């Protein structure tokens, strides 16, 4: 300001009307030049034309209530079809009266996902959330869960062993003894079970009627395949990434070979492999559930992709972190779990969520080997001769559901990217 | 791993063998490899036993047997009497056809949308953003189904085909178009086209050298178009201007003659291109956004137009950031083209799948799929790595 005014007399001049408000905004963003103005007008015409046609079809002439497809014919969209079939599309062939079970399973899984998206939960609580949530989900889906004593013993051995490895040189002696005891009980118990001293006890929880995986369908299948696919692929991917970065030539070779092989072929070929080759791989008489086979294929596939993302995180760490950890005298496990992974994983959380979105969409490929995921049940809803001829409605509905899931996750990933980088941002 | 760096030090104090990092490393490796080997042995021995029990033949001799199934879309001569090897090769060519055209189109569309998202025109930017979100957040397979169903239900049957100039017929059996009848001149035109392309490359090199030396620009693009289009036209005229065409015409329930673009192929291509260009758009956009703002400001200050700023200053620099993620998108197109099986387009996986069902020899066929995709993937990444190296920033 060049002119000097006494502080009390300073007057606020209103800015020129052509540069602010709606008109100013339009002038700046829509009609800044001749070419821009013409583009805007053409686009408005095209968008208006598309929107009016779409709304005419989807809303104004649409049928929302009809007994069969014949009543819809000649009108616009037949949303009555969705109204009639939505329960099949969401839950597949699950027994009709029991549909509340997959519904609550989906709610449990959504609750797990939403709770784990809160950063305050990123600690030991996460394990509790996922343990309880998974138990509820599978109890609802299967209706009964029988846990054999061998499985319990094996879990004890695995958890104890893991605790011994990961907490081996940092835990206080009391905790360490706990891990050792757990692993010991597991190992001794398993040996006794194999020899035949322990009988084949099992813990059976069966509040509902049993529903086999062949009857599962719709949203729960898609969510289970994607969520548990990624959950199990995550530790696997970490191991692969660490292996790929290791100095041990044989380990490195194995990991590189696996990662490149899986990433080089389409998921479909792995799914076909899981459906036709896996039965050949196993001893005769041993049969693995089709759903589980698809889940294994998804885990292997996701593992290779996650490994590459984590490798990116590992490579983003400055070399000094590794050297400093060595200099302090930490061993490999300590260095990795205390110094390297916490930093590397923080970097890769947003891309990991993007991978999850990718796998959420890619699980739709399981329909090729005959598993009734959400897209497949939507597809099957079209087969009914009473309602033939309205593919657009069903696919748009399915697309809308997928969009809601994926878009909210991608927003979350964007938010997290900003949130996690607050510390490094200037 | 600490193991290597510690083990290589020359002045080592004597340690017990179970504390020696080198020995530990090898023991660990041998144990892991042993376990993997054990697993492999378990699987292989089971497989051999299962194959013997189910009396499934092994080996690749089935490839020479008669395939006996139809393939809807073939680029080379094929009949059900051809061998399995040829059937699989036909499928492979179809995969490559979809992949190559898809890569080409989605690069163009994706770049346009990515640049459009950065447009100063708010409406254009928003529309491009809607496009990206719409296609990125819904599975490709769903788009393929939707597009395929729309094509096969929205278009009329062959008898009521949409007739354009009595030569193009659009129906639910695909797009029929006239095609020139075979003539030796066309071979020569192909060779002339190749010569034109090679000549253009040399002209471009020479023009760049001249501009570097003297500052004088040379109309490379016009010359190039002249060479690439002009040479084949001259050859065509010299060859007596053959103009006999095979026209499509209705015969029975379908068309005869001409060339057909099948609805399966169209749906697959449209779906792949629309889906992948959403990802390409994001890559292009983030590549441009990553550039320093001073680059575009300096270019504008020099008096370049917005188009020139984009074409001469921003895109060449953004290319360096764009190429690596773009490579993985190209690989994705190639791999995603295997979704063809869901809408019935005979690509590699579809052809092999039929072969598996007919011969029961799953292992050999899966090996073929894997080998084929791996070789395609590796060659695409080799090419893109070469290109990336070529345009990389040359630092001293």
Features of this protein?
heterodimer; A: 426 residues; mainly alpha; MetI-like fold; two-stranded antiparallel sheet; 17 helices; globular; B: 396 residues; alpha+beta; four-stranded antiparallel β-sheet; two-stranded antiparallel ribbon; 13 helices; 8 strands; disordered N terminus
Molecular structure report:
The complex is a heterodimer of chains A (426) and B (396). Chain A has 426 residues and is mostly helical. Helices cover 69% and strands 2% of the residues of chain A. Among the domains of chain A are: 17-47, no CATH class; 70-94 and 219-426, MetI-like (MetI-like fold). Chain A is built from 17 helices and 2 strands. Chain B has 396 residues and is of the alpha+beta class. Helices cover 67% and strands 6% of the residues of chain B. In chain B, strands 1-2-3-8 form a 4-stranded antiparallel beta sheet. In chain B, strands 4-5 form a two-stranded antiparallel ribbon. In chain B, helix 3 packs antiparallel against helix 4 (122-136). The longest helix of chain B is centred in the first third of the chain and has 34 residues, at 84-117. At the A-B interface, helix 2, helix 10, helix 11, helix 12 and helix 15 of A face helix 1, helix 2, helix 4, helix 5 and helix 12 of B.
In short:
The complex is a heterodimer of chains A (426) and B (396). Chain A has 426 residues and is mainly alpha-helical.
Q: Any low-confidence stretches of chain A, pLDDT <50, length ≥5?
A: none
CATH superfamily caption of the domain at 70-94 and 219-426 in chain A: MetI-like
Radius of gyration of chain A: 28 Å
Look at the structure and give the CATH class of the domain at 70-94 and 219-426 in chain A. Answer: Mainly Alpha
Q: Write the H/E string of chain A, N to C.
A: HHHHHHEHHEHHHHHHHHH
Model regions low in confidence, pLDDT < 50 over at least 5 residues of chain B: 1-9
User: Helix count of chain B, per DSSP?
Assistant: 13
**How far apart are the first and last residues' alpha carbons of chain A, in Å?**
31 Å
Measure the end-to-end span of chain B.
32 Å
Architecture per CATH nomenclature, i.e. the level-2 architecture of the domain at 70-94 and 219-426 in chain A? Orthogonal Bundle
Whole-number average pLDDT of chain A? 85
Multimer state: heterodimer
CATH topology of the domain at 84-139 and 263-391 in chain B: MetI-like fold
Please give the CATH class of the domain at 84-139 and 263-391 in chain B: Mainly Alpha
Largest sheet of chain A: 2 strands, antiparallel
**Percentage of residues assigned to helices of chain B:** 55-70%
Topology order of chain B in helix (H) and strand (E) letters? HHHHHEEEEHHEEEEHHHHHH
Decide which structural class fits the backbone of chain B: alpha+beta
What's the total number of strands of chain B?
Answer: 8
Principal-axis shape of chain B equals globular
Radius of gyration of chain B: 28 Å
């Amino acid at each position: 300001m060049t002119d000097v005014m006494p502080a009390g007399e300073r007057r606020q001049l209103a800015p020129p009307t052509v540069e602010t408000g709606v008109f100013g905004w339009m002038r700046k963003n829509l009609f800044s030049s001749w070419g821009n103005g013409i583009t805007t007008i053409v686009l408005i015409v095209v968008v208006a034309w598309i929107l009016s046609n779409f709304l005419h079809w989807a809303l104004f002439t649409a049928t929302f209530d009809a007994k069969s497809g014949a009543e819809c014919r000649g009108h616009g969209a037949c949303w009555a079809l969705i109204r009639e079939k939505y329960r099949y599309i969401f839950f597949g062939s699950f027994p009709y009266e029991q549909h509340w079970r997959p519904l609550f399973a989906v709610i449990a899984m959504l609750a797990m996902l939403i709770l784990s998206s809160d950063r305050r939960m990123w600690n030991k609580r996460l394990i509790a959330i996922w343990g309880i949530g998974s138990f509820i989900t599978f109890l609802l889906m299967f209706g009964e869960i029988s846990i054999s004593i061998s499985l319990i013993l094996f879990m004890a051995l695995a958890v104890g062993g893991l605790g011994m490895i990961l907490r081996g040189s940092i835990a206080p002696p009391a905790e360490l003894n706990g891990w050792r005891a757990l692993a010991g009980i597991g190992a001794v118990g398993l040996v006794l079970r194999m020899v035949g001293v322990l009988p084949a006890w099992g813990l059976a929880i069966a509040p509902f009627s049993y529903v086999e995986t062949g009857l599962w369908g719709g949203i729960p299948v898609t969510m289970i395949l994607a969520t548990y696919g990624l959950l199990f692929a995550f530790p696997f991917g970490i191991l692969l990434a660490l292996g790929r970065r290791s100095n041990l030539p044989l380990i490195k070779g194995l990991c590189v070979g696996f990662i490149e092989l899986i990433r080089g072929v389409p998921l479909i070929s792995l799914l076909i492999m899981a459906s036709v080759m896996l039965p050949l791989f196993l001893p005769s008489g041993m049969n693995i559930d089709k759903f589980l086979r698809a889940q294994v294929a998804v885990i292997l596939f996701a593992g290779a992709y996650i490994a590459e993302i984590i490798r990116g995180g590992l490579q983003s760490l400055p070399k000094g972190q590794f050297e400093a950890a060595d200099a302090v005298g930490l061993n490999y496990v300590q260095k990795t779990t205390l110094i390297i992974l916490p930093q590397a994983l923080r970097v890769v959380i947003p891309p990991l969520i993007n991978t999850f979105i990718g796998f959420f969409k890619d699980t739709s490929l399981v329909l090729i080997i005959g598993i009734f995921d959400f897209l497949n049940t939507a597809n099957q809803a079209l087969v009914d001769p009473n309602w033939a001829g309205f593919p657009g409605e069903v696919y748009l509905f399915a697309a809308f559901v997928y969009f809601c899931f994926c878009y909210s996750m991608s927003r979350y990933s964007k938010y997290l990217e900003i949130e996690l980088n607050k510390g490094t941002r200037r | 791993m600490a193991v290597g760096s510690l083990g290589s030090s020359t002045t080592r104090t004597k340690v017990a063998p179970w504390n020696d990092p080198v020995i530990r490393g090898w023991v660990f490796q041998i144990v892991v490899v042993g376990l993997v080997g054990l697993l492999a042995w378990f699987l292989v021995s089971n497989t051999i036993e299962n194959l013997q029990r189910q009396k499934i033949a092994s080996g690749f001799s089935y490839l020479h047997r008669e395939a006996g199934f139809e393939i809807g879309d073939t680029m080379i001569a094929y009949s059900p009497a051809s061998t399995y090897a040829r059937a699989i090769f036909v499928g492979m060519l179809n995969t490559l056809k979809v992949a190559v055209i898809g890569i080409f189109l989605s690069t163009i569309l994706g770049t346009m949308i990515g640049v459009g998202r950065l447009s100063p025109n708010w409406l254009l930017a928003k529309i491009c953003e809607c496009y990206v979100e719409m296609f990125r957040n819904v599975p490709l397979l769903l788009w393929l189904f939707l597009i395929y169903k729309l094509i096969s239900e929205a278009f009329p049957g062959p008898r009521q085909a949409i007739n354009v100039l009595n030569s193009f017929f659009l129906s639910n059996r695909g797009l029929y178009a006239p095609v020139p009848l075979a003539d030796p001149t066309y071979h020569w035109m192909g060779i002339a086209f190749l010569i034109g392309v090679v000549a253009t490359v040399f002209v471009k090199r020479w023009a760049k050298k001249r501009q570097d030396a003297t500052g004088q620009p040379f109309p490379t693009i016009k010359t190039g178009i002249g060479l690439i289009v002009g040479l084949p036209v001259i050859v065509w005229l010299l060859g007596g201007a053959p103009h006999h065409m095979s026209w499509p015409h209705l015969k029975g329930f379908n068309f005869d003659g001409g060339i057909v673009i099948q609805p399966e192929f169209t749906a697959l291509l449209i779906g792949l291109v629309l889906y992948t260009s959403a990802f390409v758009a994001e890559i292009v956009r983030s590549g441009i956004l990553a550039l320093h703002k001073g680059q575009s400001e300096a270019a504008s200050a020099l008096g370049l137009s917005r188009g020139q700023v984009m074409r001469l200053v921003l895109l060449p620099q953004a290319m360096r950031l764009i190429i690596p993620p773009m490579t993985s998108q190209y690989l994705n197109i190639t791999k995603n083209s295997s979704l063809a099986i869901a809408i019935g387009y005979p690509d590699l996986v579809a052809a092999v799948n039929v072969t598996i069902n007919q011969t029961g020899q799953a292992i050999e066929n899966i090996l073929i799929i894997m080998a084929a995709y791996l070789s395609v993937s590796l060659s695409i990444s080799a090419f893109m790595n070469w290109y990336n190296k070529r345009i990389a920033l040359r630092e001293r």
